[in-house]
Amino acid sequence: MPEETTSIDYVMEAASGPHFSGLRLDGRMPSSATAAAASSSADSTLTPDFLPNQPFVIGVSGGTASGKTTVCDMIIQQLHDHRVVLVNQDSFYRGLNPEELERVHEYNFDHPDAFDTEQLLECTMKLISGQGVHVPIYDFKKHQRSSDSFRQVNASDVIILEGILVFHDQRVRDLMNMKIFVDTDADVRLARRIRRDTMERGRDINSVLEQYAKFVKPAFDDFVLPSKKYADVIIPRGGDNHVAIDLIVQHIRTKLGQHDLCKIYPNAYVIQSTFQIRGMHTLIRDRDISKHDFVFYSDRLIRLVVEHGLGHLPFTEKQVVTPTGSVYTGVDFCKKLCGVSIVRR
Ligand SMILES: Nc1ncnc2c1ncn2[C@@H]1O[C@H](COP(=O)(O)OP(=O)(O)O)[C@@H](O)[C@H]1O
Ligand SMILES: Nc1ccn([C@@H]2O[C@H](COP(=O)(O)O)[C@@H](O)[C@H]2O)c(=O)n1
């Protein structure tokens, strides 16, 4: 295609690469690999075993505008009772120097070298080891990182790494316990990209189409699509595929051990967590909390446990007469019971 030509027909045609469909749950789980084994074989497609007490690391890749962020948001929403953080590979784009900025239309943002992968690797390893990190904030309009602000990301139960090339570097790949590839038709992705980049990233249609034909599509074929082979799960249609997302969330929950507890103790009930409960857990874990607040919030949490527990005890039917004279049929505890919460610090 000549450089100046921006025929949408051409680009749509150029965008139609190979297509795959069907959810694939390979279940490849080697026994020896660990999250720390970042220097194994040269072309490893293996996903390391998940070690208890370590965060579960998920990689989400796919072409531009395939719905990676949407899928991640849906997973995060469903895992609301866990601490989940999202790290976007986009945050690790290198800022352009003045010379590169002047010729920005010649810059290939879809090549692996456009990212500071060393920094992404370092951040991810810190998060895995339980440390908080500062993630850069990238501006797609200025092609620069913010010089004075960053996003604080804290240690979590689940770390999601999302980006077009998160499977490209083997060291990053080897940190992942689960790799997901979001597979959406190229024409759908291009249409979404045009809408998004013109509405949110300060581009005009011509520049989006030119960039797509010159860099985005070739880099997809050269780097993104070949990395699909590393995926454990392929999600056709991205965020529209609720079945695939539900299955993935179930798998993560199992890996995080929520179900195991109930398997070991069949009588155990795990109270559904809420933001309010997590908020109180956050307060009482803060080493700077006052003694008064620690006792107050611990007591509230323990009351929830006791009240939930009482709900599982035997009851018998009981009738009472209300002040208006009607009969109300309710229940009564079978035995006299009392729950006591003791807080020690
Ligand atoms: N299933 C969908 N249906 C319609 N629009 C979608 C869908 N998934 C994503 N989008 C839109 O497409 C654009 C790109 O989606 P996003 O999830 O950010 O993709 P990615 O992170 O892969 O670039 C966004 O504007 C988003 O709102
Ligand atoms: N300054 C930049 C940086 C990146 N891009 C494009 O972003 C795409 C990756 O982001 P997605 O949300 O679509 O995954 C990538 O294809 C780059 O071309 C850009 O246009 N400008």
Automatic annotation (TrEMBL):
Keywords: Allosteric enzyme, ATP-binding, GTP-binding, Kinase, Multifunctional enzyme, Nucleotide-binding, Transferase. Residues 273-344 form the Phosphoribosyltransferase domain. SUPFAM superfamilies: P-loop containing nucleoside triphosphate hydrolases, PRTase-like. Residues 57-243 form the Phosphoribulokinase/uridine kinase domain. It comes from the Eukaryota. GO terms for molecular function: ATP binding; GTP binding; uridine kinase activity. GO terms for biological process: CTP salvage; UMP salvage. The keyword Nucleotide-binding applies. It catalyses: cytidine + ATP = CMP + ADP + H(+); uridine + ATP = UMP + ADP + H(+). Its EC number is 2.7.1.48. Pathway: Pyrimidine metabolism; CTP biosynthesis via salvage pathway; CTP from cytidine: step 1/3; Pyrimidine metabolism; UMP biosynthesis via salvage pathway; UMP from uridine: step 1/1. In the C-terminal section; belongs to the UPRTase family. NCBIfam families: PRK05480.1 (NF004018), udk (TIGR00235). This is Uridine kinase. It comes from Glycine max. The gene is LOC100786137.
